[in-house]
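Why does residue order matter? Because the sequence determines the fold. Keep that principle in mind as you read this record.
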Amino acid sequence: MNMATIDGSKIHHMKVTASGQVSVPAEVRRRWDTTRVKITDEGDRLVIEPEPENPFADLIGILPGLPSWEEMKADEREAEEQRERRRYPWMFDGEDAGGPS
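Structure:
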């Protein structure tokens, strides 16, 4: 990777692999604090921007009365556990539940 500075902006020159991959420099990944990016094709250039880990994060809380993201995840975890308990009761009730041996 080669880097130059023009008008205070750091310009990174990266190689594109045969499979079309480009590495985002570590200092940029740390500054953005994300593992997701959005790439916009503007015809003569690509624009790479950080994207939140939760793509719906900006929408959470805009409608009053809806649960938070954490509450929704907790509710879904609880519902998943209940489905698992109904489907595989012997895994939760011990060996005396009569499940497969």
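The longest strand covers residues 36-41.
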